[in-house]
Amino acid sequence: MNRTRLSNALSALALAALGAGCANLERSRDIANPNVAAPVIAQQVCSMCHGLSGTAVSPNFPNLAGQTDTYLVSQLKGFRGHGRRDPAGFEYMWGLSRSLTDAQIEGLASYFSQATPLRQPVEAEVARVQAGQVIFEQGVPAKNIPACAACHGDKGQGQGMFPRLAGQHVDYLVKQLKVFQRSDDRPEGAVMKTVAHDLGSDDIANVAAYAQALPNR
Amino acid sequence: MRHPADLGKLESRDVSRAWQAWWLLLAILILGMQPAHAIPLFNRQTGQNCVACHAGGQFPELTPYGRLFKMTGYTLGERIKVPLSAMAVVSQSSVANTSKSLSPSTDFAKNNDFILANASVFAGGKITDNLGAFIQVTYDPRAVLNADGSYSGHTNADNMDLRWADRFVGADRDLIVGVSLNNNPSVSDPWNTAPAWMQYVPLPSPTSSQFIDATTPYPSYSSGGNIAGLTTYAFLDRTWYGEIGAYGTARGPLSFMTRGVTPRTTLRGLNPYWRLAWNREWGAHNLMIGTGGMYARVYQDPNDPSTIDRYHDWNIDAQYQYLLDPHSVTAQLVYASSRHRYPDAQGGQPASFVDAAGNPLPPSSFQSSTHLLRAKLSYVYQARYGGSVSLFNLSGTTNTANQTSGFDPATLTITATDPNATQLSLPVNGNLSGNPGTRGGTLEAFWMPVQYVRVGAQYTIYTRYNGASSNYDGLGRNARDNNSLFLYMWMAY
Questions:
Q1: SS3 assignment, position B346
Q2: Is B1 within a domain?
Q3: How close B34 gets to chain A, by Cα (Å)?
Q4: What's the structural domain count of chain B?
Q5: Which of B56, B93, B165, B367 pairs as cysteine with B341 (C-beta 3.0–4.6 A)?
Q6: Which residues in chain B have Cβ-Cβ distances shorter than 8 Å to A21?
């Protein structure tokens, strides 16, 4: 008798839990419901890897805070349409972006582009940062490599299609430079293939170190 | 059926057949199914690769994101039309010594054979914005060893976890709360040092493969699974995790959680479960230090209240991960303590065996305790090649009731037949000391040719078994005779 009451109570609780959870637009993690507002997706889904305000704890995931609106829209659409197909992109982002509407993508871009980038500790050693500064500001004329600052801004703040680099994780920048250099997995950034083509491994590490350190300089 | 004397000696025809089977299966898997969409339930729901949620793609170990996916009730993603997926493990095991046994044909029946270890179907995933489920039903082709040496398969409820969860996020707060209705203490836990998750390659039937890593001592809750529990949990600011709940017999509307399991575990009343963990993530690193425990009262005979075993289990666990493509490193450490109080009538009973001189042994204990220490370090490169090393040390109190071999009072010779028992003890699992002490380690190498297939080889070494390093059964079997090679292929769709 007592036992039956116990299991009935447990079942009733389970049923109550069932009833309590239909659509919950304010805190939904549904990435295929066009009615879920972009800030909700940003907080409930994107934040798991990219941080609540777009600053990612793990260097496996790029910081999004303060990224340019145009760039974020183009990347999300690139993931959704499979135009961007570097491993880090398709492994994580193809699925999450596959059902987003244009309006949601624009809303997400707006959410993160308006977020204030947090000042992060410098990840690389000083010598790399200093060597990277030269490449960032002057390019490598002998190899016809233009200055990063020419397109990405003197403080690496980005503009339009040219992404913000300042404060981005070193590991992410290095990996993406290698993607541009060695593959055609990011056709929207084809110009970077030419730019990065002759950058050596050390150059890549240095310039990434400088870009990451930028907000602190 | 092979003659017992032939067991352990692998004929060359058998070897080539076994290899043919391995390669054929692998070729079908790799050529027949290309990534990235023909993959299991949660992948279809989120559209992501295994590596997003599983550290280095090494299922079932979770990444920080995988843990959040679980804690938010499997509700991230989109509901899929056919919420099903399947998994199967094929394996082959080989024990160092199969001759020191009174009955090799039953002790090592499937030694060196390529077998289907088990197969599971999963159902669930996202149900609503707040509800999700993880329901596993498993088929074991060698669940029962029949008297004629043949096996009978059996399907039963395996891990089940139905959740309601919500996440309250604001500028200065991140709170996940949830309720889990589940059938296995700690199956709801997001870390893989939890007893339900630390042993990670699905276990073939012990009657067909023993002494492999999966049958070495792992932390566990003494109540076992296939009971019913309701737990509630919270995760605050990705730092503090707490969970409390209670488990009881899976009966009435909850009996589906124990479907196919006989005999059903019967618990007395509600049995408390608790868990507390501190978590920190920095850069590519994350660390968890936690503790958990359960108090369980389990009936030996559901109709007789005087036959209750009382278990008090608690553990301390820690897990560190470094996850930065292409490297995944995981270190795990668990200390598990279990205190077992026997039914009053079973303590203080005279021992059936005697010592070598014919003197009586101490009577059986009223309670006993075990302490298990387990550590594991694993590394995966490019979510493709990996390896691990793990160490285990189980120690505990000696209890003459645990002796399954000893000196026969009449003949003063060692026998594996308990004079008071009605069945023959399994000699290779004989225990002359009455002590559970078992120590050793497992080395593993694995390869994931595609993200939903893992091919692995494990070698398990024993330096101590059932309380002794040599002659642990009194019949000459040594701990090292149990060293085992285990090959497996684990596939999921």
A1: helix
A2: no
A3: 14
A4: 1
A5: B367
A6: 127-131, 164
